[in-house]
Amino acid sequence: MDLRGRGPVARRNGGTHLPPPEGAANHSGRSASPLKGSRARILRKGTLAVVIRPAVPTDIQPLSNVLARAFRDDPGFAWMLPRRETRAPRLRGVFATMLRAEALRYGGVEVALAEGRLVGGAIWFPPNHWQPTRSEQVRSRPGYAQALGRQLSRATSFVQSLARVHPSEPHWYLVSIGVEPEFQGRGVAGSLLRSRLDRCDRSGESAYLEASNPAGIPIYRRFGFQPTAIPKLPDGAPAITPMWRSPTPRRAPSNPGI
User: Fold this and answer.
1) pLDDT of the residue at 186
2) Has residue 170 been placed in a domain?
3) What pLDDT, in 10s, does the model give residues 159-196?
4) pTM here?
5) CATH, residue 136
6) What dihedral do alpha carbons 240, 145, 112, 166 form, nearest 10°?
7) pLDDT over 50 at 9, yes or no
8) What letter would DSSP give residue 105?
9) CA angle 19, 20, 22 (to 5 degrees)
10) Is residue 17 part of a domain?
11) Inter-CA distances, 105 with 27, 34, 109, 129, 173, Å
12) Which range of residues forms the domain containing residue 211?
């Protein structure tokens, strides 16, 4: 069972979107030292200093909490987990399982820190690793089953539809990116995106995502992503827009306002 490419559950529900701003959250996790990691970057967006660094195991719980709040009203997750009152705790289980059993080992997960706390993160898988290994499926199965409960088959049909149109060319796969609701619209998501995309441009590598929120599509276009094949989804499921980005020598926008 996996949220990426195959098995009873494949990939995240709808991949990636930039959630629109919503009310401030009252809970947040503390993270490891902001400068821990070899790729730490300090960026300033207006008056907000944002530190981007690789995720470490102690980030799993706080990052899962942040992503659960960021995606609580995501169209894809709302369809997969219809009960809003239980959606956030279930999402915490989904993201914690993904990070612990699959993503962290590849070194593509990054977190954003501001004002002394973890406020966002991006889960990337490197080229040729968008599908899970057998061992990853075994490790992730209990966590996904517990988190999704009776909605497991519903989630499976949704994400397997996305896997059918996933490109075969090597690419960095952005499974999920999210920001604490009270920090949305302050440049945090843009900083997270730019951190990986700048390196993709330097190394000549492509990137891929699935936009689950129509409002995010113009933003992703400004970062160089273009829509690709539209998947046929289960009846009633929200629209998902897969997007591909080829490497470019030009820098991503410096102030995307997200």
Assistant:
1) 93
2) yes
3) 889 999 999 999 999 999 999 999 999 999 999 999 99
4) 0.82
5) 3.40.630.30
6) -30
7) no
8) G
9) 110
10) no
11) 27, 20, 9, 11, 15
12) 41-245
SS3 content of the chain, % helix, strand, coil (to 5): 40, 20, 40
Per residue in 124-138, pLDDT (tens digit) is 999 999 988 889 989
DSSP 3-state assignment of 230? coil
CA separation, residue 231 to residues 45, 82, 123, 183 (Å): 36, 22, 22, 32
Which DSSP string do the residues of 14-83 spell out, in sequence order?
T-B--PPP-PPPS-----S-TT-STT-EEEEETTEEEEEEE--GGGHHHHHHHHHHHTTT-HHHHHHS--
Number of folded domains in the chain?
1
The residue written with tokens 């997200």 in the block is 258
66/68 Cα distance (integer angstroms): 5
Handedness of CA 70, 73, 238, 214 (dihedral sign): negative
Count of alpha carbons within 13 angstroms of residue 6, beta-carbon side: 9
**Distance (Å, whole) CA 42 – CA 214:** 30
Does 188 map to a domain?
Answer: yes
Q: Is 253 exposed, middle or buried (0-12, 13-18, 19+ CB in 10 A)?
A: middle
- DSSP bridge pairs for 226: 244
Of the chain, the percentage scoring pLDDT greater than 90 comes to: 65
Residue 137 lies in a domain: yes
Residue with tokens 């290994």: 133
In sequence order, which residues have a C-beta less than 8 Å from that of residue 26 and are 6 or more positions away? none
Please report, for residues 22, 82, 94, the alpha-carbon distance to residue 40 in angstroms, rounded to integers and kept in the order given: 28, 38, 26
pLDDT at 15: 45
Burial 3-22 (b: 16+ CB within 10 A, else e): bbbebbbbbbbbbbbbbeee
